[in-house]
Write a structure and sequence with these properties.
alpha/beta, eight-stranded mixed sheet, 36% helix
Length: 288
Amino acid sequence: MKKTVNITFVLLLMSISIVAQNSFKMKLWKDGVPDSNGITTPMDERNGRVSNISDPDITIYPAYEAKNTGITVLICPGGGYVQLAMKHEGSDFAEWFTENGITAVVLKYRMPNHHHQIPLEDVQKAMSILRKNAVSWHINPNKIGVMGFSAGGHLASTLLTHFDSISRPDFGVLFYPVVTSDEKLTHKGSFFNLTDETDDETIINYYSNEKQVKPNTPPVLLFHSNDDTAVAPENSVLFYEALRANRIPSSLHIFPSGGHGWGFNTDYAYHQWMKDILLDWINLITAQ
């Protein structure tokens, strides 16, 4: 029995190593960023989190060749628009996706530092890069979605409602997302870091994404926990209601417990359930 366990463990390590070896990075802006976020301190990486990001990039995790479905997910980790949780809201999901035939791309986007347009510039650019490289990366340009967590969920929901023909996602997945600017429901830290508490109603409404849903917004899957005290589950509910009002095929799952920020943590009570729903939904929605 012990020998069997050891062999299984070795095979698991080998598969993780293969994924890591096959992944590769690409700078988002080859000729330099179009505008500065004003951050001049060096980027800080520790304990799976990254802050002080002023030079964005993407890490591409190609799907296992024998299982490749052509589906791709662009992942936006969260962190309140001041840092990014690159592991449990990034690479952990990416490695799991590749095992299931889905190419994953983790976006290390710039922190806004009160320059509200900068994260959206980065996620739109990342989506356009994926479409332009679809043939060489063996992905289907019509099966590219965006997925985000918390403030990264806000960024993903912003892309889902603010896009042009090349940057429009084909589907979206939002985990405990910041969505609304409503003072009673918003995550004030994320909105402050993005918009600098502006009084400009045009900017506030622009990023209150439940107000920006249109009939051409892509289908969306939402996850939240009922006991989330950091980002109220009403954020997901408001977005789902706007999607439903526009007759957009979408699904909302509010788990009884879990709080905020669980991502790919395997000790989360609904971890397996979440994975099953996520994989089934993506495969179904991209088959339509």
